[in-house]
Design goal:
Layout: E1 7-14, H1 20-32, H2 39-60, E2 69-76, E3 79-86, E4 96-97, H3 106-110, H4 120-127, E5 130-136, E6 139-147
Antiparallel strand pairs: 1-2, 2-3, 3-6, 4-5, 5-6
Helix pairs in contact: 1-2, 2-4
């Protein structure tokens, strides 16, 4: 059986400036528009890309325009994968998955027992079929996977 290598659909960088998440979602949408995502799933992917890019701009790169956010869009079989990278890693670590963030709990947040922040990764994880966060030195990457085939008909949101 012959394996087909992942196909790069687009790769680009953005300045780490608030608002550039809109450029990222538009460019990703353009790159994947003819690759099998229905309208609803495309909107979910765009929302996840925007949120992940905002996190990269704000938390990873500290809103420093001179430090780019890197975006790579690939297709691997029936999977569209969007990898968003920033420079918010911990320096000299080997490539490791990031620890799972604490699940947001609305009651605990309202009671002040949990930070009011922390909804971003929860939202992203629930908008796509798979999410992976890795750190390799300074490079911090969140990979978002959206399937186009039979597994794509999930009615979560």
């Amino acid at each position: 059986m012959t394996q087909v290598a992942p196909r790069q659909l687009d790769t680009f960088t953005l300045a780490s400036e608030p608002g550039n998440e809109r450029l990222a979602l538009a460019r990703v949408a353009e790159a994947v528009k003819h690759h099998g995502l229905d309208g609803r799933r495309l909107e979910r992917l765009k929302t996840a890309v925007a949120e992940a890019t905002m996190n990269a701009i704000e938390h990873g790169n500290g809103n420093r325009a001179e430090v780019p956010v890197e975006v790579e869009v690939t297709q691997d079989g029936d999977a569209i994968v969007v990898a968003i990278s920033d420079q918010g890693g911990q320096g000299d670590q080997a490539a490791v998955p990031a620890p799972s963030p604490e699940e947001p709990d609305l009651v605990r947040k309202l009671d002040g027992d949990q930070s009011p922040r922390g909804w971003g990764l929860f939202l992203i994880r629930n908008m796509v079929d798979a999410m992976e966060v890795t750190t390799n030195g300074q490079r911090h990457t969140i990979s978002l996977t959206m399937r186009t085939g039979g597994a794509a008909h999930d009615e979560r949101l």
